[in-house]
Amino acid sequence: MEQYVTLETLMSDSVAKKHLPKAGYAHCISVAESAYELAVERDVCADLATKAALLHDIGHTIWEHQGEWDYESYSEYDIHTIKGAERSHELLTLKGEDLGKAREIALAILFHSDSSQVSAHVDLTPLQRLVADADNMNKEEQGAHHNQEIEFNEALQRVRRLDMLVYRHIKTQQSCVECKFKQECNLSR
Ligand SMILES: [Fe+2]
Ligand SMILES: [Fe+2]
What we know:
The protein has helices at residues 7-12, 14-23, 25-42, 46-55, 71-77, 80-94, 99-110, 126-137, 152-172, 182-185, and strands spanning 64-65, 68-69. 61% of the residues lie in helices and 2% in strands. It has one domain (7-185): Hypothetical protein af1432 (Orthogonal Bundle), CATH 1.10.3210.
C-alpha cells in the first residue's frame, strides 16, 4: 500500500524549507487555502490542488539588483515556474508520492503563471486553471505578497489544518473529476 504524502511532510522537508521562504510562507499557505476552497467548489481533486498550490512558488528566487528587489527584471526574465516544476517533482518523488500525481502537480506548477511564457497557447486543465486562479487571488502589486512574513510554526499549524480538511473531504468523495488516480486519492492511508 502506497504511503500518503501530506502537506506537512512536504513543507517540513529541507528542500521546501530552503526554497519556500523565498516566496514567503504566508503566500504559499494562503494559495493552498484558496486552492482547497476552489477544489471543493469546482469538484477538482483537493489533494492535488493543495499540494500544487503549496509548492507552486518553490522555484521562486530572490531577484535583486544592488540589494533592492528588482520587480521589472523579475517580470521580464523569471523562470520560476520551470524551476518549480522540476524542484517540486524531485521533492514529491523523494517523499514517495505516486508518480502520476507527482507529474500532475509538477505540470500545474509549470503552468501556474505566464511569467515564463511556457503556458502560452496551452489549454489549461481544471487543476492547472485552479492553481493559477488561487495564486491570482493572493497577489498584490509589485509582488508585495512575497514580502508578508509568518513564522514556520504558524505556517505548520495552518498546513496541518489543511491536511485535516483535505483528508475529510476526499474521504467522503466517490471519485475525483480531475484526478485520474482515484484509487490512490480515495485513499491509501
Ligand atoms: Fe508563482
Ligand atoms: Fe505565487
